[in-house]
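Q: My collaborator sent me two sequences in one message, no labels, and asked for predicted structures for both. Can we handle them in order? The first one she listed is below.
A: Yes, handling them in the order given. First sequence, followed by its structure tokens:
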Amino acid sequence: MNDASQTTWTERDLACDPHQAKDKAQRIEQMFAAIAPWYDLNNRLHSLWRDQAWRRTAVRAAKPKPSDIVLDAACGTGDLTMAFARANPARVIGIDFTVPMLQLARDKSQRPHRWAKAPHYQAGDAMCLPIADAAVDIVSIAFGIRNVADPAAAIGEFYRVLRPGGRLIVLEFSQPRNPLVRLADRFYREKVMPVTATWIARDRSGAYRYLPRSVSAFTDREGLAQHLKNAGFSSVTQKPLTFGVAVCYRGLKN
């Protein structure tokens, strides 16, 4: 396990495109292990408490039914997993490859909640899901697709495990299209958040320098939507959230 004293992303690493790092998966796992205890707090503070609203939007977009099985990939500390559980589908599964994040998710699921069944969590990689073909009705991933070493491979896995008629929901950060909003968002994301989030987490892994850089270096909205179409998803839609700071994508498996 990594700790906050170990540097995962240096300034030199981030001067290039971090998504091209050959050992990206290992770095991502180490980074999230380092910041896990402070991850939820930083999410709330630096999204101005919008992150939970974005997840509720994702659940509504998926339209879960009582008979549905939901898979939340790269579930982290389980916020979206639990948002789905509150909708009371038949079963909700959260999968992540960072053990400290999964442990936090499991701990949170033991608290009193308004759901019929607590989520089930297990270790796994979004690019090689431990799920049978056509086994689930909904696949979701929140702010994780850009952290996957090969996003196209992960989206292909999402398609594989979905049943015909299944829905894919992707929540991801984006760069707002309005020039003034985009400028303000970039200043906040690249100048303010890295300083305050690093201080809160007492982090030395470079996580909060990587995270804003990973947004600016990632594909744009049309590029991500095209990834979904290339994997076979149809009726792909994009819903901008909070002036386009985040986007909720939805695709269907025919």
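Q: And the one she listed second?
A: Here it is, processed independently of the first:
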Amino acid sequence: MHTRKSFLYRSAEKIKALALTGLSLPLIIKNLNAQRSGSSLPELVAMRGGKGPDDLFSRGIEHLGGINRFVKRGGTVLVKPNIGWDRTPEYGANTNPDLIKAIVESCRKAGASKVYVFDHTCDHWRNTYKNSGIEASVKAAGGEMIPANSKSYYREVSIPGGVTLKKALVHRVYLDADTVINVPILKHHSSTMITASMKNLMGVIWDRYAWHRMGLHQCIADFAALRKPDLVVIDAYNVMTRNGPRGYSKSDLVEYKYLFMSADQVAADAAGAMVLAQSSGIKTPRDIGHIRIAEKAGLGSADLDSLNIKRIVI
């Protein structure tokens, strides 16, 4: 019989074993408290280990209430990975294709009528879709890859409460889907220090370069208020800790083996920020401008110590 005490002991032993390999554990470890008694569902599920991010997702989604909590039977779903770069999976520039396959499959099993996947890419979209491995994974899982390379796919909308970003051309599928699941890969970024879920939404707008001119952190936080994703799944398994967002070589990656899941995009990004803390100047999640601004705007919580976090070590 597995008691809570024995579970915590086994988890501690696994963490100790990982530490002995020479891999320094991110600061997020100290904040991954066990789920508080008396609560129903955690606000953040933080997982580590497993065979890959797809394995962690399949094991962990039930702790957030299962995929049916987020997907309506007969409804449409947008799964939004990072597919920005013409890079193969081992470089960690795009979301892991096996993770996307697992999420699309789970949505289909939950009864979604359509599961769409797209990104407004930085490199040529046909090449990124193919070479990232995501196109093949989506098709194998019964999803539909759709393009985002034409202005005709976008509608102009007003941004509620936007401080700098007042309007944006937004992909109509992001606006119209019944469910949005945001699935970024965590990595270093030369302009914003990190790429996680809120920054990943730059892939649903037409003119991402305007945000750089207007003030990137404020625009990211402004846009986050338009539509909060129903679920955020952050792929932090193989993390690009330098030379992001495209990366130069496999040596830019550290195998942290993390996956974070939450309905709170700010909380998910805060966890991601602390994974990158040891390879950057980040001390708290609020050191990241758009996380600090989004939290102040009431879009979520970056206070990891106060969150109900479910930690699972496989």
